[in-house]
């Protein structure tokens, strides 16, 4: 029985160490990807400023065609909002907070089931004869050490989805 006590004590020490290290991790995260497209900003902007257009290029919609979406607010630009429910992609809400035609769309993103909020932007910048589209999302994982560990992997988890979405958008505007 003495060995059981030692194992339990060692396990408690390891959990305590992991929690202490988790508290020292940064709480913020940032994911950013860019791609150049052979298209003008006025060709790209309507596809990013209208939430109904996202299903044409977003990887999340392609992975779950059964995703249900409800739109509200403005039809596009600032105030456009949508809520989705998906068994595989999770439930979420997005609202465009700022929109500058042919330049950028800023958004607030919420995943209520996970208690997570973040903000992001899709920015259009002239790049040679085309446009560089940069997609950014950043947020704060809060004080929870478990969430802070999760924050370490946000770039690896979400980055490929941004890359896939931007690739789909590129094909759509260049095609």
Kindly describe this structure.
Strands 1-7-6-5-4-3-2 form a seven-stranded antiparallel β-sheet. It is an alpha+beta fold. It is built from five helices and seven strands, in the order H-E-H-H-E-E-E-E-E-E-H-H. Helix 1 packs across helix 4. A hairpin with a 4-residue loop joins strand 5 and strand 6. The chain has a single domain, classed as Alpha-D-Glucose-1,6-Bisphosphate, Chain A, domain 4 (2-Layer Sandwich), CATH 3.30.530. Helices cover 38% and strands 35% of the residues. The protein is elongated, with a radius of gyration of 20 Å.
* Alpha-beta content class: alpha+beta
Ends: how far apart? 70 Å
Look at the structure and give the CATH class. Answer: Alpha Beta
Instruction: Give the H and E element order.
Output: HEHHEEEEEEHH
CATH superfamily: START domain
Percent helix: 25-40%
What Rg, in angstroms, do the CA atoms define? Answer: 20 Å
- Please count the helical segments: 5
Beta strand %: 35-45%
Global shape: elongated
**Overall average residue pLDDT:** 90
Strand order of the largest sheet: 1-7-6-5-4-3-2
Q: Main sheet?
A: 7 strands, antiparallel
Number of distinct beta strands: 7
CATH architecture label name: 2-Layer Sandwich
- Uncertain runs with pLDDT below 50, 5 residues or more? none
In total, the number of domains comes to 1
The fold-level CATH name is Alpha-D-Glucose-1,6-Bisphosphate, Chain A, domain 4
């Amino acid at each position: 029985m003495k060995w059981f006590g030692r194992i339990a004590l060692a396990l408690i020490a390891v959990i305590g160490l992991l929690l202490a290290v988790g508290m020292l991790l940064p709480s913020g995260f940032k994911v950013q990807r860019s791609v150049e497209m052979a298209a003008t900003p006025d060709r790209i902007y309507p596809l990013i400023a209208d939430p109904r257009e996202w299903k044409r290029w977003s990887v999340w919609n392609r992975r779950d065609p059964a995703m249900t979406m409800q739109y509200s607010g403005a039809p596009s630009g600032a105030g456009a909002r949508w809520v989705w429910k998906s068994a595989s992609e999770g439930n979420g809400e997005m609202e465009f907070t700022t929109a500058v035609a042919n330049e950028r769309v800023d958004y607030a993103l919420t995943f209520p089931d996970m208690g997570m909020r973040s903000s992001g932007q899709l920015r259009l910048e002239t790049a040679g004869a085309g446009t560089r589209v940069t997609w950014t999302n950043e947020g704060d994982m809060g004080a929870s050490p478990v969430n802070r560990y999760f924050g370490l992997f946000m770039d690896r988890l979400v980055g490929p989805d941004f890359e896939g979405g931007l690739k789909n958008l590129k094909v759509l505007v260049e095609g």
